[in-house]
Design brief:
Number of helices: 4
Helix content: 25-40%
Largest sheet: 7 strands, mixed
Strand order of the largest sheet: 1-2-3-4-5-7-6
CATH class: Alpha Beta
CATH topology: Aminopeptidase
Distance between the termini: 21 Å
Number of domains: 1
Shape: globular
Length: about 160
């Protein structure tokens, strides 16, 4: 799905961290370097299958969305990358491809707010299901999702 077809807006109501979806033209070179550094935290894990550069290229070519996670004081707290996919059965999925925060505790506290942002974004873009692949910890942080072989999913209502 191309960026011009995606409905976005800043999501201000979150208590600990707000998540903002950006168009790839919204960041300066410095911003991209910061995002690459953040994403390298995710990509350095043993089970990661992407590089920061490959994720950034996917964002710049409109096949993935970049989310900035912004702390209450306005500082960047993390970055998340999502991808919207249309399946042969006509359903659309929003998948979290990567997520990394500067502060592990802030990240843990903010995942519920982030899931609210994902769900709002999904509803606005006619997404049927949200998929998060990763470690088992995601399931503990988001108990209303169902874990399926380390992939948790939620049907968007």
């Amino acid at each position: 799905m191309i960026a011009s077809q995606i409905k976005t807006e800043p999501l201000e109501r979150f208590t600990s961290v707000r998540a903002v979806v950006l168009n790839h033209n919204d960041l300066t070179d410095y911003g991209w370097e910061f995002v690459k550094k953040l994403l390298s935290r995710y990509c350095n894990r043993e089970d990661a299958m992407s590089t920061p550069e490959s994720l950034v290229e996917s964002i710049k070519h409109d096949s993935h969305q970049l989310w900035l996670l912004i702390a209450p004081g306005g500082d960047w707290a993390g970055a998340m990358v999502t991808e919207m996919s249309k399946y042969p059965n006509g359903k659309t999925a929003l998948s979290v491809s990567a997520c990394a925060t500067l502060d592990t505790e802030l990240g843990k506290e903010s995942f519920r707010d982030i899931s609210d942002a994902l769900e709002d974004f999904a509803r606005k873009n006619d997404v049927d299901v949200i998929r998060i692949e990763g470690r088992k910890g995601w399931g503990r942080l988001l108990p209303d999702y169902t874990e399926v072989s380390r992939t948790i999913v939620k049907v968007v209502e």
